[in-house]
Design brief:
- It is built from 14 helices and 17 strands.
- By secondary structure, it is of the alpha/beta class.
- The chain folds into 3 domains: about 5-135 and about 305-325, NAD(P)-binding Rossmann-like Domain (Rossmann fold, 3-Layer(aba) Sandwich); about 150-300, 2-Layer Sandwich (Dihydrodipicolinate Reductase, domain 2); about 345-425, ACT domain (Alpha-Beta Plaits, 2-Layer Sandwich), CATH 3.30.70.260.
- The chain is elongated.
- The protein binds NADP nicotinamide-adenine-dinucleotide phosphate (NAP) and L-homoserine (HSE).
- The site of NADP nicotinamide-adenine-dinucleotide phosphate has 23 residues, from helix 1.
């Protein structure tokens, strides 16, 4: 071993950075035993060095100059927990070019720039780790890359956004409206002040782009992930779903079949007996199906100071072990293939459709005719309630092509007897 200790530079000391600091300090002795050398934080980059961080930090530890970390020859590993693309990407690339291994929790940066970061790591003999970028404290990147590497992964289905899972749980268990559930999530500090990335599905889409790239060994870009958030989900839909023995979840779905791969994020009806159905509140879970292992599921806290820092520090310890042994490339890019990603129109699933229609003879027949003409086969039709001249009907289809369903809906929306297509939710059996 050429080194007797490992020095870490921390870029950022917000929620996750604070957790990393705490774990490295509180568990220092055990970490030293497991790594084979002490692992210490040498410098921390922040914007505001005068901010109260609720920690006793030694004098001179904080800096507002990224160069104090990136260009410091004593620092072996840089931990990027700033968030966003810039300056996180610029600092990360500069650190790798200085031969420092990089640990990041930044899904935005990995989903959009993973390729160039891996390239920089490879060219400069260092490693890149990003376990915390997907599902916080839950180990999923390393299990996919290492423990499950023998498998051909067929499918990964996950609840990978804690905020929306919390909201849907409250809407389901307490009958809260979307706005009430969002306000509660914000009050509890789960949702961001601007919760768009959570409720519109962007956060989950970034995580699924990363997961799918690793699971299927091909680079899946954010643009290739179909995305629909939970903003249209109502308590009525959740109630009707329950009557049909389903729960409503925001799912990230990545599947490989003979005609290509598909990666999508959208709300879905999930059977009550599916292993992901009881995953409630802010918890995350990821269900993986491999040809050899069968089904495995990972469950835990997908966000928060210590759970996320747990994954970051685990990565720091791996990077430290490699640094001590003077080896690199142990965490190299696994996207060696180039697979076809199917457009959403070519995917198929079942659908729940809620319609508000005129309550008179022949209306249902005219709707069924349009579905039939577009190869959309119906599995069940339930008339919910009638108010004056209108009726609410809920239809569930058999598995059909998305393109056919959308073609049918375009025509149905124009029928004079249809007041409104109130909602369409995919059903994942
Ligand atoms: P955060 O609380 O907003 O903290 C960001 C930190 O970075 C702050 O200390 C801030 O400094 C510093 N910073 C930001 N921009 C800077 C700049 N231009 N120059 C210097 N310092 C800068 O963020 P977070 O929640 O810890 O998240 C960090 C990363 O972890 C993100 O990529 C996020 O997606 C990821 N992540 C977070 C969670 C979670 O539960 N929070 C879970 C999984 C992954 P000041 O303190 O001085 O303002
Ligand atoms: N905003 C994310 C969530 C946590 O609610 O799951 C960070 O990935």
């Amino acid at each position: 071993m050429s080194k007797s200790k490992i020095n870490v530079g921390l870029l950022g000391m917000g929620t996750v950075g604070r957790g990393v600091y705490r774990i490295l300090k509180d568990n220092r002795a055990g970490i030293e035993q497991k790594v084979g050398a002490p692992v210490d934080i040498k410098k921390i980059l922040v914007r505001d060095p005068d901010k109260d961080r609720g920690l006793e930090l030694e004098q001179g530890l904080l800096t507002t100059e990224a160069g104090d970390i990136i260009n410091n020859p004593d620092i072996d590993i840089v931990v990027e927990v700033l968030g966003g693309i810039n300056p996180a990407l610029e600092y990360s690339l500069r650190a790798l070019k200085q031969g420092k291994s990089l640990v990041t929790a930044n899904k935005d940066m990995i989903a959009a720039h993973g390729k160039e970061l891996f390239q920089a790591a490879g060219e400069n003999g260092c490693d890149l780790f990003f376990e915390a970028s997907v599902a916080g404290g839950i180990p999923i990147i390393r299990p996919l890359k290492e423990c499950l590497a023998a498998n051909r992964i067929r499918q990964v289905i996950g609840i990978v956004n804690g905020t929306t899972n919390y909201m849907l749980t409250r809407m389901s268990k307490e009958g809260l409206t979307f706005d009430e559930a969002l306000a509660q999530a914000q009050a509890l500090g789960y949702a961001e002040a601007d919760p768009t990335a959570d409720v519109a599905g962007h956060d989950a889409a970034r995580k699924m782009a990363i997961i799918a790239s690793i699971a299927f060994n091909t680079r899946v870009s954010l643009e290739q992930v179909f995305l629909e958030g939970i903003t249209r989900i109502t308590t009525e839909d959740i109630k009707y779903a329950a009557e049909l023995n389903y729960v409503v979840k925001l799912l990230g779905i990545a599947k490989e079949s003979d005609d290509g791969i598909e990666v999508r994020v959208h709300p879905a009806l999930l059977p009550e007996d599916h292993p992901l159905a009881p995953v409630d509140d802010v918890y995350n879970a990821i269900h993986v199906s491999g040809d050899a292992v069968g089904d495995v599921m990972f469950f835990g806290r997908g966000a928060g100071e210590l759970p996320t820092a747990s994954a970051v520090v685990g990565d720091v310890m791996s990077a430290a072990r490699y640094k001590l042994r003077d080896v690199s490339g142990m965490s190299s890019c696994t996207c060696y293939g180039e697979k076809y990603v199917k457009p959403m129109g070519l995917t198929s699933t079942k659908y729940y459709i809620r319609l508000n229609v005129a309550d008179r003879p022949g209306v249902l027949a005219s709707i069924a005719f349009v579905f039939g003409n577009n190869d959309v086969s119906l599995a069940s039709v339930i008339q919910k309630h009638t108010t004056g001249q209108a009726a609410e009907i809920v239809l569930v289809t058999h598995r059909v092509l998305e393109k056919n369903l959308q073609d049918a809906l375009r025509i149905i929306k124009e029928l004079s007897t249809v007041n409104e297509v109130s909602n369409v939710i995919r059903v994942e059996d």
